[in-house]
Design brief:
Elements lengths: L6 H11 L1 H6 L2 E6 L2 E7 L13 H17 L5 E10 L8 E11 L3 E9 L5 E11 L9
Antiparallel strand pairs: 1-2, 2-4, 3-6, 4-5, 5-6
Length: 142
């Protein structure tokens, strides 16, 4: 599949329609083929009953970062398998940065490693995602 679009334009197209990533407050920091880096601030409504960030917030942030990296060649890709390890608690006011690095870019699958760090540079979670490539474009040619 020939890519007629720059990786950043594909990600910005995705963000226009990704209401959940918008609700999370995600902003795109950097994008290149097979790579993305995003950031977000933790808000009070993201806290669980233990007074720390709900694991679904960190998972969702990593999942968005994963999606931006595996789709930015304009080849619609969907998650096949994901996993996350939570290493440190996250608190209200923390600034999180997620970085997705491509480990494998195959014709039908891709493998990505996402690291989430806080404003102090501490790794708070690591995520692994495998995607399936559909061979359909994210942005259709007109």
């Amino acid at each position: 599949m020939a890519n007629q679009h720059e990786p950043a334009s594909v990600v910005y197209h995705m963000m226009e329609n990704d209401l959940f990533s918008q609700w999370l407050g995600i902003s795109v920091v950097e994008v290149k083929e097979g790579y993305s880096r995003i950031k977000m601030a933790v808000r009070p409504e993201m806290i669980n009953g233990f007074g720390i960030v709900h694991g679904g917030i960190a998972f969702s942030m990593a999942d968005s970062c994963f999606a931006f990296a595996c789709n930015n060649r304009n080849n619609l890709s969907v998650a096949l398998d994901t996993s996350i390890n939570f290493l440190k608690p996250v608190h209200v006011g923390d600034e999180l940065i997620a970085e997705s690095k491509e480990l494998h870019n195959g014709k039908t699958t891709g493998l990505y490693h996402i690291t989430i760090t806080n404003q102090k540079g501490h790794v708070v979670a690591v995520f692994k995602g495998t995607c399936f490539r559909t061979s359909k474009p994210m942005i259709k040619e007109e």
